[in-house]
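Backbone-to-sequence.
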């Protein structure tokens, strides 16, 4: 008897197949990553996928459209004379704190001198200049299309003065002499934001100018091994752009999103586990290109997603890790990976956060009783003696209006913290900050006054730059926001 007859029928059958036929049989039983091509979709299913895709891709479109908006500028400059903007693979620096009229990025910070610039590593690798900052705190935020950090450059990393190279995922060129380190991105598009701490004094405003003159970014073709210097206070100006809403510039449009989606998917290859998601999104785009009615339904669903899912994430009480006294925080900023909810929430409320070891953020929209903070009331925030935010860099408490921008006030004060050298401590060593619309009647308290918008909702925001272990480990959290008696 043939030994084939002693095997189970299925095994004998496979042995009898030609090698090519056996391979085809095995391939036919493998799981397909995503939908089969040319599948017809119902509108309800298209809406389901469109909703998920729009939420997933919102942060990517936000960063990609910043690249497109400024890529053809003739040179670095200041938009409206107050906001640093630059052509692709270049950056512009401020020479002072950012002004309250700025609307390109929510939750600006008046503790640092900012720089900003989009990168397109598919066009060219990019050289980052690091001057000698001395003892001054500084950090360069370098993020990819997903708003994840891919370069550790800053005082907390012991970064030395010199030249650093940013390259795309597929770059295979030769690293020129004089480059200290190469950082490889997972995507071609990204954003770079230098932050350099400055005390709120005339003396430090003057002292910082020679330091920030060495901050720069440019394509590899401009690199000659010599440190370039720029007087950023003398930059040309571009016309201002109005956000039209009082809030952040609208970087993501539901009407255009699905036309932009293929470019986003091509720029940001799938992370592990995302292959089927990418295949599903690509199939949906292909179906929409063949069916105008289906595309119209997808756009309609994107508009609903913007209103129902994305817009509420502007407010800090809508998301985050809960802490005592109604504060919230996040623990994976600039390292979101596949945490799609937190990535989009942070992108909507305050995009371009640093990694937690660089900066720890604490968000607050409620008082200790759970009531919405509003300028009709008066509040105090008291840090007990010895319990200011434990940092190696600096800390601050910033106030934002409901749109997460500065609320204009007569004394032009939007934050208090390390930069302020005239804060008054209480007799017991504690520090009380007075948050209210009108100046405190006691003149001794006015140095500690953080002006609030009259009769309007607002939020508070604690930054701890280069935080100590007590902050990153959760042993220290901010004190309550108390309604004043």
């Amino acid at each position: 008897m043939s030994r084939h007859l002693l095997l189970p029928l299925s095994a004998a059958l496979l042995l009898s197949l030609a090698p090519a036929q056996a391979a085809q049989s095995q391939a036919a039983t493998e799981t397909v990553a995503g939908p089969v091509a040319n599948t017809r979709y119902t509108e309800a299913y298209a809406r389901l996928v469109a909703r998920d895709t729009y939420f997933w891709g919102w942060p990517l479109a936000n960063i990609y459209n910043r690249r497109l908006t400024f890529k053809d500028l003739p040179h670095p400059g200041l938009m409206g004379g107050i906001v640093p903007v630059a052509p692709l693979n270049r950056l512009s620096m401020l020479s002072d704190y950012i002004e309250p009229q700025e609307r390109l990025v929510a939750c600006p910070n008046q503790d640092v001198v900012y720089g900003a610039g989009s990168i397109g590593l598919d066009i060219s690798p990019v050289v980052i200049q690091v001057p000698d900052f001395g003892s001054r705190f500084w950090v360069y935020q370098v993020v990819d299309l997903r708003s994840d950090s891919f370069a550790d450059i800053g005082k907390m990393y012991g970064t030395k003065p010199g030249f650093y190279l940013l390259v795309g995922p597929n770059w295979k060129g030769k690293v020129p002499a004089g480059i200290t380190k190469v950082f490889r991105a997972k995507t071609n598009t990204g954003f770079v934001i230098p932050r350099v701490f400055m005390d709120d004094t005339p003396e430090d405003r003057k002292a910082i100018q020679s330091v920030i003159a060495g901050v720069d970014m440019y394509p590899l073709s401009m690199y000659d091994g010599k440190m370039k210097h720029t007087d950023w206070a003398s930059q040309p100006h571009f016309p201002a752009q109005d956000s039209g809403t009082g809030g952040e510039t609208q970087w993501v449009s539901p009407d255009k999103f699905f036309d932009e989606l293929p470019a986003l998917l091509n720029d940001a290859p799938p992370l592990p586990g995302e292959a089927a998601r990418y295949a599903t999104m690509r199939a949906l785009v292909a179906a929409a290109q063949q069916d105008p009615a289906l595309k119209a339904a997808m756009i309609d669903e994107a508009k609903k997603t913007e209103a129902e899912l994305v817009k509420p994430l502007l407010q800090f009480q809508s998301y985050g890790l809960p802490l005592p006294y109604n504060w919230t925080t996040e623990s994976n900023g600039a390292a979101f990976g596949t945490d799609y909810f937190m990535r989009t929430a942070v992108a909507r409320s305050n995009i371009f956060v640093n990694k937690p070891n660089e900066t720890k953020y604490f968000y607050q929209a409620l008082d200790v009783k759970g009531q919405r903070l509003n300028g009709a009331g008066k509040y105090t925030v008291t840090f007990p003696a010895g319990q200011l935010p434990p940092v190696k860099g600096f800390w601050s408490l910033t106030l934002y209006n409901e749109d997460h921008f500065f609320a204009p006030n007569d004394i032009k004060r939007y934050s208090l913290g390390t930069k302020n050298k005239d804060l008054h401590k209480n007799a017991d060593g504690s520090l009380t900050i007075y948050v209210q619309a009108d100046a405190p009647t006691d003149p001794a308290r006015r140095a500690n006054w953080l002006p609030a918008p009259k009769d309007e909702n607002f939020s508070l925001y604690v930054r701890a730059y280069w935080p100590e272990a007590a902050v990153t480990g959760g042993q220290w959290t901010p004190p309550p926001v108390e309604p004043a008696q």
